[in-house]
Structure formats: structure tokens, C-alpha cells
Amino acid sequence: MAKGRHSLVSMMKDEGPRLLEWLAYHRLIGVDTVWIWTNDCRDGTDAMLDRLAAMGLCRHLPNDVPPGRKPQPHALGLADRTPGVADTGWMIVLDADEFLHVKAGDGTLPALLAACPDGTEGVAIPWRTMGSNGIADWSAAPLLDQFTRGAPEGFRRGWGVKTLFRPFPHQKLGIHRPTIKGAKRDEGRMAALMARRWVNGSGVPMPPSFLQDGWRCSAATAGYGLAEIAHFAVQSREAYLLRGDRGNVNLKPDKYDATYFAVFDRNEEALPQLSRWSPAVAALVDDWLQDAELKRLLRASIDWHRARLGALRDTPGFAARMAALERAAAVPYDALDGLLFVQPLTPAGKRRVAEMRAAGVPDAEIARHIARAVQALEAQRDAREAAELRAMGVVPAGGF
Predict the structure, then answer these.
(1) In the prediction, which pLDDT does 399 show?
(2) Pfam families, alphabetically (predicted)?
């Protein structure tokens, strides 16, 4: 294994206008190998990646998704089976709207790893949900300068993690964290998984229950001190509608509705720190664009997005959808429990919502019912993980 290397795995579709900023940023912070799988690109992202691969800046592979299969897990399965992907010192799986923000030292991966305890084998880094900054129009301008506000650290819906980790035997990649193939059936493999030494985004050890099957922080484990994942989940209102037009990696119908926007368009805190990288990112991108073919492909991709947006603007209902997003953006932080957000519920939960609606229960009342149930479950998990940490001699976060 190449101990000094840092690798990134991603999957993309129609990301051309944002691709170079994302790639340049992660190379600047210390990622030296980038593996990207693409499927069904309409905007030339795949051609851009082929050119970037020819320039030695990434590795691009096709994600030929069988009918009915989900693009994201299919790509991760391909990555698991591709020789060389795990031949690295550290690796992480990131989407094209996620930026690994290192706060330690000079903001690079070596600085993050140097700040973690000796023997660390994984860092479960929490999302920091970034909002629209009130911007309505789509622009090809860099994300890091446009969107500089986000959710507070206490935003539970943003406590999903992405894990920077040392590869290990029998690993199976996941979008939030890796696991060990067959661990649920093989006690030895589960023991090996539980023996991994993982810490949170503040360098504090994670408890056994997280190592077993967790993908989110709890109040006892949320930590942002050394690193976070800036998650640009919504961007501008027009960008959000373009994203919905593209589809999503897990084939969830109507995922990008106004309720999703209301939940994740969080702008409560000024978070401009990543914009300090903008000059270096711009300089590196400008250097790459000395390549005439890459420059042509980028322009063609931006033109495609502008044309596609123009077509969407001409469709019936576009103005109404934009108005719905404007209303959604006005939902305050302390009113989110009053929104009926069904997408993250289990199938049983969704059936219960359907039953309550059929019985005439108002959506706001159903939402508050769900919020109370979720809060009770979260309180149990908070207490369980706090107890696990105390048993390890670790002081939990959150005042436990």
C-alpha cells in the first residue's frame, strides 16, 4: 500500500461547470489520486474527465448502470472491484457538491492527519450544510465565493459523515463510510471492523456502535474542530431546479422538491473560510485551461447548462416552482419541525404518513408527530453513545 498517498473516489453526472473548481481544490489540499465514475452525461462532463485523465489529473471510468440499478451504489461496487483503488495511504468518497474543509494547520490533508491522535485509522467528518445565500440565478461562477453561509453545528439533519480512512482487508466502500464485506455474518470480520481506530471531526474517538453500522454523528460524537465537509446541497434556486432535472444517484422520485430546499437551504452562520482557497484554485484552473481542448470542453458544458436552463425557464410551471423555492427559503430554522419531510423516513414511516393523510390529519400535525418520534430515538442514541464513550474513558461532546 502506498502509505503517503491520499485518494478520492467520486461519481458524477452533468457536473461540467463545477468540475474544475472541485478537482483543483482537492488537489491543492493534498489529494493526489482522483477516481471518478460517470453515467449518462448530457453536458460533456465525461469528455472533460477524459481530457483531464489524459493530462494526468484524474482517472475516469464509465459507470454503465443496468436498468433499475442505482448509479451511486453501482459505481461504488465498481470501485471496490477496480485494481489500484485501495492502493493508497488514505481515501475518501465524496460527491461533486462536497468539499473536504480542513481546519487544522495549513488546511491540507497532512495537517489534518498530523492533528489526529497517533494510530488513527479513520476520521468520520461531519457535513456542514451550506445554503443558497439568497441567490436565485444560476451562474457558472465558483461555488466557494458564491455560497458562504451555512447551518450551525447543531443542525442534526446535517450530521451525516464522510469518512477519510486507511484502506483495510475486505473493505466495502459506502457513500458515508466503509465497512467490511460479510461483517454481519462473520464474527471475525465484525471484530476486525470494531477494532478500527476512528475519530470524529475533532479527533475524538468514535464509539463501538458507530463503528458497527453508524453513518451519522450524535450529540455525543459531533465534532467540527479539525475538519468538516462543506456540503453545497442546494446552491442557487435555479441550480437546484437544474439538479432536479438531472435526476439523482439513488433513483428517489421527486427528491428535489421545495421541502428539501427548505430543510437544507440553511444560511444561519457566515462561513467564508473556504473562500480563502479561491485565488489558488483559480490560478490552478487557469493553468489547466491553457490546454485548448479542455477549455473548449468547459465552454461547451457551460453552454449546455445555459441552454438547458433556458428550456426549463420556458416550461409551464417554472415560475411557480421558483416561487415555491423562494417561500421555502424563508422557513426559519426553528420552524423546520413543522415541515413534513418524508424522504428520509423508512418505508414503514412513509406508510404511516400516508395513513394519517388519508385520515385527514394536517401535514403540519403529521410533521410534529414525526419530529417528536425522531427526537425520542435521537435522545436514546445520544445517551447510548455517550455511555459508550465514557466507558472508553472519553469525554462525550454535547455536555453529557
Answers:
(1) 76
(2) Glyco_tranf_2_4
Answer whether residue 200 is part of any domain. yes
Expressed as residue numbers, the domain containing 140 is 6-313
pTM above 0.90, yes or no: yes
- Structure confidence at residue 97 (pLDDT): 97
The partner residues of 127 in beta bridges, in order of sequence, read 229
What is the Cα–Cα distance from 81 to 85, expressed in whole angstroms?
Answer: 8
DSSP notation for 180-192 = ETTTTT-HHHHHH
C-alpha cell at 303: 453552454
Q: Where are the beta strands (DSSP E) in the chain?
A: 6-12, 33-38, 59-62, 90-93, 98-102, 122-129, 149-150, 161-165, 171-172, 179-180, 198-200, 227-231, 269-270
Pick from 37, 34, 31: nearest CA to 13: 37
What are 346-356's pLDDT values in tens digits?
899 899 999 99
**Total tally of structural domains belonging to the chain:** 1
Answer whether residue 357 is part of any domain: no
Distances from the Cα of 353 to the Cαs of 56, 156, 335, 369, in angstroms? 50, 21, 19, 10
Domain presence at residue 364: no
Q: Which residues of the chain have pLDDT under 50?
A: none
